[in-house]
Design a protein that fits this description.
six-stranded antiparallel beta sheet, 258 residues, two-stranded antiparallel sheet, DNA-binding, single chain, transcription, 8 strands, transcription regulation, alpha+beta, HTH_MetabolicPath_Reg, 45% helix
Length: 258
């Protein structure tokens, strides 16, 4: 029996969360029919969920267009996670030092299903071409932080995650073949760090290393942003990779001591 088949599983809560997740950058506002379609529920259920979420202050309705949108109240849920996440507290001083050492923006990402989620950042003084706010998600299969995390998993776990991933081409450099991705991950294992150039966004490059818990399991990745306008792959590997590795190892050592 899986979780959704258990008598303890609350389907109403599942539907309510599906409605909240249905709103995004492409669907900033929706009418009731669009909410139902995006959340994968019928219109009657959507109406009950929207009414409840509106009463609780998580959704509001425009008085003229009658379209629904999220309210800032939703941010409290995400903030509470970050405030309670010990890993973020431990990582922050090391990320700050890494940003100061490299002069570039540094980030901590954590795994969520087949993506990596931004949970901490220290912004460097130099321009970065792509801004992804805290809470943004990036795919594991085509990013440095994702491949760094995958490199610390067992091979069967990696293959299972790739099988669940939508391997789409974001740029002409994106590797979408499972064989190519597995080869790239094997290289990360050999080197200890991942470097990814323009596979998600043109002009964007990053160097990443995995953070491991006391059992040696990966729990996050540290990555340094290295725009291709300032860095070659060779220079990033020579100057940024050692610093990213040292940062990830320091965070790993610190969380093991908790």
């Amino acid at each position: 029996m899986n979780d959704s088949e258990s008598s303890l599983f609350n389907q109403s809560l599942e539907k309510g969360l599906a409605v909240l997740r249905a709103f995004n950058a492409r669907r900033r506002t929706m009418n009731l029919a669009e909410v139902a379609e995006a959340a994968g529920i019928n219109k009657s259920s959507a109406q009950r969920m929207i009414y409840t979420l509106e009463a609780l202050g998580y959704v509001s309705k425009h008085p003229l267009s009658k379209r629904f949108q999220l309210t800032p109240e939703v941010m409290e849920i995400g903030y509470n996670y970050l405030a309670a996440d010990t890993l973020v507290d431990v990582a922050n001083p090391f990320l700050a030092e890494l940003a100061q050492t490299t002069g570039e923006t540094t980030n901590l990402t954590e795994p969520v299903r087949t993506d990596m989620l931004y949970v901490a950042r220290f912004v460097g003084p130099k321009f970065i071409p792509i801004h992804l706010p805290i809470g943004s998600r990036i795919p594991m299969y085509c990013t440095a932080s994702g491949r760094a995390y995958l490199s610390a998993l067992e091979e069967d776990e990696v293959k299972a995650l790739l099988a669940r991933s939508e391997l789409i081409r974001h740029t002409h450099l994106t590797r979408t073949s499972p064989e190519q991705i597995l080869e790239a991950i094997a290289e990360v294992r050999r080197k200890g760090y991942a470097i990814n150039s323009e596979e998600l966004f043109l002009g964007d490059m990053a160097v990443a290393a995995p953070v491991r818990n006391s059992q040696g399991r990966p729990v996050a990745s540290v990555h340094v942003v290295a725009p291709t306008s300032r860095w070659s792959v060779e220079d990033a590997e020579r100057r940024l990779a050692p610093a990213a590795l040292e940062c990830a190892r320091a965070i790993s050592t610190s969380i093991r001591a908790l």
